[in-house]
Please model this.
Amino acid sequence: MKSGVLVKIHESADKSILAVADKELVGKTFEEVDMCLNVSERFYKGEELSEEEVIKLMKNATNMNIIGKKAIAIGIKAGIITEDNVIKVKGIPHAIIFNYGN
Model:
């Protein structure tokens, strides 16, 4: 069963970033006075996977950008993030995880 989130992996020579976003948010921008959340198609438009597949990718990723209620809920279920790690822009939850180590 599909999760309602899109997943895209961005690879570079020495690191990768897992982009996860609720399907219906891709291509939209949300702005507040001092924050802007751009859920660009270029960065987030990937494959829709099952929740189990998304959790597996999250558990193996070191750098992640997670946007949307469904995507954040999956991150919390996977034990990757907590509510304390989440900010909201125009009510849209967002979390970034970076691992600067090896």
User: Anything to note?
Assistant: The chain has one domain: 2-97.
